[in-house]
């Protein structure tokens, strides 16, 4: 399967609370300094912070951290904690008198799933999750399942547990693409309805309020426009994994990060856009795999082998690199 941390320099930190009325958490993706990024929001019920700063037409080019959190719009305050950690550690856009960290965030709806509607991530949890990411060793695998922002995740209108999943692929030219998904969907995984086991959740009879969040990272050299197009392409992978997706009740959001360590184009006889198409096709596939991994690692569902046997193999694009 691999993990998003197969992209050198990418680190992931989780923090969660699951007792005393809590069932929520924060996950922070901390890229190396200089990472370029953008985002594409497709769901009808998003809860996001600072995503406008990732528009290709805006001033800032770099992303200092990405915060994925529970707590719906309330939980977005966790991004303030990640910003504070970045400022403390000298990461941010230089401005007169100091720096301004660029820390976009997105939240899933998990309010009340532990029993207390007011138990949701705060600034201190965001700071701690960012510090946890920074403390990880290079290349360390990512904890999956009901951890971090996936602690209170569910899918299928609350019938099944969701969670955190991750996957990666290495292309022939040395470009690595990895994805991390927080699966908290209204829909169900395509083709796995018969192999997942239902679990009890407090909100099983409540209206669907969900969201699937994804961070895709690559070591390729991409500009902000190309990151935007990559994030857009990755929504195809989300739609291939979950049915339905991008509904009015989902806030489906994909962030795309490029660390810029490897040139995308390595052959003079192949136009660069062909290499970009191959990368984006692979990225969509990795998103599908990360989402299914998140389902298979959650409590009360089938083994990964059972999930992938039901889903079928991923067919990859094998065009010019």
Protein model, in words:
With 321 residues, this protein is α+β, with helices and mostly antiparallel strands. It has a single domain, classed as 4-Layer Sandwich (L-amino peptidase D-ALA esterase/amidase). 25% of the residues lie in helices and 24% in strands. The chain has 6 helices and 16 strands. The chain has helices at residues 72-75, 78-88, 123-134, 224-241, 272-297, 304-311, and strands at residues 11-17, 24-30, 36-41, 48-49, 66-69, 93-95, 98-100, 105-107, 154-155, 160-161, 163-170, 176-183, 188-189, 213-220, 242-243, 253-262. The chain has a 5-stranded mixed sheet. α2 crosses α3, α4 (224-241) crosses α5 and α5 packs across α6 (304-311). The two termini are 21 Å apart.
Could you give a quick summary of the protein structure above?
The protein has 6 helices and 16 strands.
- Major sheet strand order: 1-2-5-8-4
- Overall geometry comes to globular
The average pLDDT value, as a whole number, equals: 87
Provide the number of structural domains: 1
In CATH terms, the superfamily is: L-amino peptidase D-ALA esterase/amidase
Number of strands: 16
Return the CATH topology.
L-amino peptidase D-ALA esterase/amidase
Specify the structural class: alpha+beta
From the N-terminal CA to the C-terminal CA, the straight-line distance is 21 Å
DSSP helix fraction: 10-25%
Along the chain, the helix and strand elements come as EEEEEHHEEEHEEEEEEHEEHH
Radius of gyration: 18 Å
- Please report the first level of CATH classification, the CATH class: Alpha Beta
Task: Report the sheet with the most strands, covering strand number, pairing sense and barrel closure.
Answer: 5 strands, mixed
Count of DSSP helices? 6
Flag low-confidence runs: 193-204, 301-321
- CATH architectural group: 4-Layer Sandwich
């Amino acid at each position: 399967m691999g993990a998003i941390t197969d992209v050198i320099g990418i680190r992931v930190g989780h923090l969660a609370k699951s007792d005393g009325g809590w069932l929520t958490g924060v996950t922070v993706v901390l890229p190396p300094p200089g990472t370029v990024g953008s985002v594409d929001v497709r769901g009808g019920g998003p809860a996001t912070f600072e995503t406008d700063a990732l528009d290709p037409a805006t001033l800032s080019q770099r992303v200092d951290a990405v915060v994925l959190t529970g707590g719906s719009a309330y939980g977005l305050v966790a991004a303030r904690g990640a910003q504070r950690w970045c400022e403390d550690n000298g990461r941010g856009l230089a401005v007169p008198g100091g720096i301004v960290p660029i820390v976009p965030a997105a939240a899933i709806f998990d309010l009340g799933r532990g029993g207390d509607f007011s138990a949701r991530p705060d600034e201190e949890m965001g700071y701690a999750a960012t510090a946890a990411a920074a403390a990880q060793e290079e290349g360390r695998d990512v904890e999956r399942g009901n951890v971090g922002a996936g602690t209170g995740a569910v899918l299928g209108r609350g019938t099944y547990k969701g969670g955190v999943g991750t996957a990666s692929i290495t292309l022939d030219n040395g470009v690595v693409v990895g994805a991390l998904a927080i699966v908290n969907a209204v829909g169900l995984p395509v083709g796995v309805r018969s192999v997942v086991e239902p679990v009890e959740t407090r909100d099983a009879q409540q209206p669907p309020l969900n969201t699937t969040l994804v961070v895709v990272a690559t070591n390729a050299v991409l500009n902000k426009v190309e990151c935007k197009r990559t994030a857009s392409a990755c929504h195809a992978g989300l739609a291939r994994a979950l049915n339905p997706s991008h509904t009015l009740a989902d806030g489906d959001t994909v962030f795309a990060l490029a660390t810029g360590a490897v040139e995308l184009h390595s052959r003079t006889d192949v136009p660069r856009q062909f290499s970009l198409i191959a990368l984006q096709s692979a990225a969509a596939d990795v998103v599908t795999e990360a989402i299914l991994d998140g389902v298979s690692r959650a409590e009360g569902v089938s083994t990964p082998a059972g999930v992938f046997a039901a889903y079928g193999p991923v067919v990859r694009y094998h065009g010019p690199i």
